[in-house]
Amino acid sequence: MKALAGGYARAKDVAHALDLLAAADGMGRVLAGGQSLIAAMNMRLSTGDMLVDISRIEALRGVTVEGGTLRIGALTRHVDIGTDPLVAEHAPLLVQAVHHIAHAAIRNRGTIGGSLAHADPAAEFPACVLALGGTIHLQGPDGMRAVAAEDFFVDVFETAIAEGEILTAITLPLIEPGERHVLIETARRSGDYALAGLCLVKRAAGHRLSAFSVGPRPILAVAAMERLDAGDAAGAVQALRNEIDPPSDTQASAAYRRHLAGVLLTRALQDLTGETA
Amino acid sequence: MTEAFRDRIDIALTVNGEPVEARVPAGRHLVDFLRLDLGLTGAHAGCEHGVCGACTIQVDGQAVRGCLMLAAQADGAEVWTLEGLTEQGVIRDLQDAFVARNALQCGYCTPGMLASIKELLDMGGVPDRATIREHLSGNYCRCTGYEAIIDAVETVAQARAGRITA
Fold first, then answer.
1. Residue-range domains of chain B with CATH
2. ipTM exceeding cut-off 0.90 for this assembly
3. In this complex, do B7 and A104 lie within 8 Å of one another by their Cβ atoms?
4. What pLDDT score does A274 carry?
5. pLDDT < 70: residue spans in chain A
């Protein structure tokens, strides 16, 4: 079908974008890469949006190391994440994720900020940022604020972003010596949404495990993390299966997703250690 | 004063090397602009939500979905469609290989396939079949079963590599 937009304006900078959002009287929609928003508009899941196109704001693009963190601008595209040397060094989990996200032509326009703000429960980047313990930076009429990934994802397509705010960047901790990242998922076809997926991060302080496509939002599997820290792989698989509440749909039943999550954890641990868990 | 929202947007871009100026509705996606406003029907509008790949075109040197980009966002962009790529002769070998290998039947997916493959071949080297398959995973073909398409891409990649080293 064809999109029905209420209006369009191209923002010159973040201040301009915030002014436009304020002027849109609740109908404002931030347009970045558009790879989810325009699809939703074409399907008339969203109509009459006052589009605030932020995609030309250069300040929101690019990857830097500053203040002891890896800072990724919201407009950094999937294809850039996949090839950026700083991301490869400090957040290899994101590079692994890129290969699972849709297809090359979509990765050429889709942005990490857009993926986080959209908060699709089956998306890889939200679960990655959760597993890495990242921080999401927002800017609004009252200034900037930072939200921990644990507090950011609220429900299906729902985040802590308030009306009139824009997601500007993500910061992630720099990698420690010996830190390991594994992203694993199962999808019906290459580039499809995962039936279930996991992000596993091993640091000196312990394991962090997030699961996606198994509920209304990515979750941190804290009970499984505790068992992993205790060296109990079988216990972790059981704990993970207990703490997720996956949906049934045409792609997979809840029982199959729960089973699959456990299988994926066993495989992720094999990847992590190079041995049979 | 904040620049106001508009429901029709003035854009200036180049399409197949020609400068184009137009006023487009805010919700007009790029592939409809090309097809309906410019009469360039090479890129096909298929699923219109980014899944099938039939609308894949080249924007600023990269393959993108024509249905997931608004015409308004193409202001200042350099757009190439199958018509322009054909005229330039830059995918002649690929088009010949498609014919030779029977890599199309109804032809609906072919323009999008060619735009996606062009991006892969432009990266250089000879991709293995798994890489070709993965790169084309976002382009659906309901006729060929893909094998002939993979064959055609592999043949062209090998021929181009041979030309370079010869």
1. 8-85 (3.10.20.30), 89-165 (1.10.150.120)
2. yes
3. no
4. 75
5. 275-277
